[in-house]
């Protein structure tokens, strides 16, 4: 990691532990609601971290006591329209809208395509875009205070930047629960999120969530980065593939990655009951 971290207006990056980057969505006075510049900044942040050899695991949380994010900035979207498309001709207007939607999708997809595991640390309001971002992460932890909502139908849109595509995958299928929360925009709490498996842990406070996140990230960051990135890649590659297809993909992936010196290093350290260290990747 560069000794001087890049600065963003609405995102703060810190390094709470070696190889662990913590990204904070930083617009707390508006409950971290996303206006236009934030989308593009989020993509830039994750593109920066993705191939950065000084980073092995990424945490994302919302600044302030009240929200992970309250979602799309509905105030600015209500004034300008969620997406602007000037053309009068319907096809040209549709083409322009499609371009903008794809652009917004790519900002969220920068989180899911990050080469490093990403852990969402959620608290307070986690509305709309919060679920798009959460489902783009590999692991989700939350505080007892978290109020989740797939809010989009309440603002008159079918969610279009990730939730409807990723939530069924995260939840292991197009379950009745998935359809219920997406169709109704019903709020659900931390206990329910844990019970259905949307989050893997519920902690008492936001501070506890961050502490736990740093602990898990530190554990991940202590492993071979070749093995960790390979594990994320191969797990993600199960989507839409049969077991046979994924086994075949895994064999090709590992035919390159098993050549890593990390394998011998990890095995030798294990035999000697020592903790191995690994070169940057
Ligand atoms: C192409 C489209 C791509 C993406 C689409 C994404 C879809 C979504 O994200 S849908 C979800 C949209 N979000 C909402 O509808 C939530 C709107 N906010 C609220 O309902 C409430 O603020 C609340 C979250 C229930 C919290 O209420 P309360 O505790 O009373 O706090 P407030 O005083 O309302 O909020 C404090 C401060 O934050 C501003 N704010 C909160 N949420 C948003 C938001 N989503 N957009 C813009 N601003 C927001 C609120 O206006 C207040 O600001 P002040 O300047 O202090 O008035």
From TrEMBL:
Q: Which InterPro entries does this UniProt record tie to the protein?
A: ClpP/crotonase-like_dom_sf (IPR029045), Ech1-like (IPR045002), Enoyl-CoA_hydra/iso (IPR001753), Enoyl-CoA_hydra_C (IPR014748)
Q: Which GO terms describe its molecular function?
A: delta(3,5)-delta(2,4)-dienoyl-CoA isomerase activity
Q: Name one GO cellular component term.
A: mitochondrion
Q: What is this protein called?
A: Enoyl-CoA hydratase
| Pathway noted in the entry | Lipid metabolism; fatty acid beta-oxidation
One record GO biological process: fatty acid beta-oxidation
| Keyword tags | Acetylation, Fatty acid metabolism, Isomerase, Lipid metabolism, Peroxisome
- State the similarity comment: Belongs to the enoyl-CoA hydratase/isomerase family.
- Species in which this protein is naturally found: Endocarpon pusillum
Q: Does the keyword Transport apply?
A: no
Q: What is its main location?
A: other
């Amino acid at each position: 990691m560069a000794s001087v971290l890049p600065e963003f207006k609405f995102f703060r990056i810190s390094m709470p532990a070696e190889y662990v980057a913590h990204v904070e969505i930083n617009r707390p006075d508006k409950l971290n609601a996303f206006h236009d510049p934030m989308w593009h900044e989020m993509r830039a942040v994750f593109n920066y971290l993705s191939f950065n050899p000084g980073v092995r695991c990424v945490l994302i949380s919302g600044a302030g006591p009240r929200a992970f994010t309250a979602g799309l900035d509905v105030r600015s979207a209500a004034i300008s329209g969620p997406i602007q498309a000037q053309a009068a001709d319907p096809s040209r207007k549709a083409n322009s809208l499609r371009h903008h939607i794809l652009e917004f999708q790519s900002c969220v997809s920068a989180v899911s395509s990050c080469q490093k595991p990403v852990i969402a640390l959620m608290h307070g309001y986690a509305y709309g875009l919060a679920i798009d971002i959460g489902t783009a992460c590999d692991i989700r932890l939350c505080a007892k205070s978290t109020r989740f909502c797939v809010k989009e139908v309440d603002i008159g849109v079918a969610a279009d930047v990730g939730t409807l595509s990723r939530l069924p995958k995260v939840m292991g299928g197009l379950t009745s629960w998935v359809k219920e929360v997406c169709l109704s925009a019903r709020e659900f709490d931390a206990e329910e999120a844990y019970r259905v498996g949307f989050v893997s842990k519920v902690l008492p406070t936001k501070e506890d969530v961050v502490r736990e996140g740093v602990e898990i990230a530190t554990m991940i960051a202590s492993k071979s980065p070749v093995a960790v990135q390979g594990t994320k890649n191969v797990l993600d590659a199960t989507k839409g593939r049969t077991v046979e297809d994924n086994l075949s993909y895994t064999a090709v992936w590992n035919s390159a990655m098993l050549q890593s010196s990390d394998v011998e290093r990890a095995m030798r350290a294990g035999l000697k009951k020592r903790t191995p260290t690994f070169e940057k990747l």
